[in-house]
Amino acid sequence: MTDKKTAIYESAKELFIQEGYKNVSLRDIAEAAGTTIGNLTYHFPKKEDLLLRIQKELYEEFFSVFDSEITQENAMNVLLNSFHEVQDIREKNRFYYEYIINIHEEFPSMKEELLSFRKRLTNFYQTIFRVLVEAGSMRSDLSASAYQHLVTTISYLTYTWYQVTTPYYDDRENMSLSETLTSLIQPYLT
Q1: Within 10 Å of residue 154's Cβ, how many Cβ atoms?
Q2: Is the separation of the CB atoms in 1 and 30 below 8 Å?
Q3: Considering the entire predicted model, what is its pTM?
């Protein structure tokens, strides 16, 4: 049996997925979790606290897939799998990404976690590209700053894609984010 805090969190996440973040109140969450507003606010005093836990979970989910050492043998698979993981996480958590700009404006404390994730993600991609260059899978004639720009472009494209396409363009037949990221690295490959 799950504890009440976990039940509240799971209920909130499920409601956000079904109804969208903006359409769910704390009262809705308490009712779905079979508890009172008082109990809910004891565990999660504000809606921000639920969103912060969701955000941390999303970031942990991404890196839990890629916690192993990056080697010359696995670097390309890790890179391509990371692109697919980004796409999968986004699709499973549309409620979060649809309102990501609003969420970060409404809850500035969440920006700290976001900035920490971005640093970790930057280091992750820098390591992969360094290993792929050493392995001869990516071009060695390009400068380190060219790869830094690639990392920045991947990061910006990913965040922009989340913010712009999730609420407006996902019903259209376009390239997926993972396909776009994969095509972005093509000129760097040997």
Answers
A1: 22
A2: no
A3: 0.82
CA 40 to each of CA 7, 82, 143: distance values in angstroms, whole numbers, following the listed order: 10, 35, 53
Q: Are 25 and 33 in contact (CB under 8 A)?
A: no
Give the residue among 132, 121, 126, 125 at the shortest CA–CA distance from 71.
132
Q: What is the pLDDT of residues 72-126, one digit of tens each?
A: 999 999 999 999 988 888 888 877 877 777 777 777 778 888 888 889 999 999 9
Closest by CA position to 29, among listed 45, 102, 87: 45
Place of tokens 């490959």: 189
- Of the candidates 97, 155, 99, 103, the residue with the CA atom closest to the CA atom of residue 126: 155
